Amino acid sequence: MYPQKNKLLLAATLLLFCSPTCFAERADRDKPVHLEADQVLMDDAQHISTFIGNVQLTQGTMLIRGDKIVVVEDSEGYKHGTVYGHTASFRQKREGLDEYVNGYGERIEYDTRAETVDFYEQAHVVRDLDDVRGEHITYSQKTEIFQVHSSGASVANKLPKRVHAVLQPKHKKETIKPSSRDALPIKPSVILSPAE
């Protein structure tokens, strides 16, 4: 019974979070990745860099923060970063809007090739007024589609952990109707007969 409800909630969440006209800031993918930390260990032979202590990764409007980030670069120059933190965070502006996607987790994985961000362990993503929580959330920067997963059954109560979502209704723009006070008064006019 619970798996079916989870599947229905997941399907509803995916449909409601899919917005074909809005995407993550597209210019971000062409910007350089900047990393700051208290210390860094770079292994050029393995193409692995480890940043430790108050780490901050930025790429255009995207900002990721955590306690530690391990970045692996492939032969084509794409990067895969794994962020660890008591609560690591992610933020990125949406294309053409003055809105941001914010995400949190104890581990965040960022893949520049696939343009995806994965949030693990107490994952939480907020977009505008919509709020989704689960054990694993995958966010596609290309399509702005979220996939939310729960984990297996909790040991304490033998029930599966649930996905939680708060989805706000999208309000239609109201048409403005003039009030009766704003309307010009209409009075019957006197019809004059032509002068004789």
Low-confidence segments, ≥5 residues, pLDDT <50? 4-23
Please summarize the sheet with the most strands.
10 strands, antiparallel
Structural class, judged by helices and strands? mainly beta
Amino-to-carboxy terminus distance: 92 Å
Please explain how this structure is put together:
With 196 residues, the chain is mainly beta. It has a single domain (2-166), classed as lipopolysaccharide transport protein A fold. The protein contains one helix and ten strands. Strands 1, 2, 3, 4, 5, 6, 7, 8, 9 and 10 form a ten-stranded antiparallel β-sheet that branches. A hairpin with a 4-residue loop joins strand 6 and strand 7. The longest helix is centred in the first third of the chain and has 16 residues, at 2-17. The termini are far apart.
List the helices and strands and how they pair.
Layout lengths: L1 H16 L16 E3 L2 E5 L4 E12 L2 E12 L5 E15 L6 E12 L4 E12 L2 E11 L5 E4 L14 E3 L30
Q: What does this entry show, briefly?
A:
With 196 residues, the chain is mainly β. Helix content is 8%, strand content 45%.
Which key phrases capture this entry?
mainly beta; 1 helix; lipopolysaccharide transport protein A fold; 196 residues
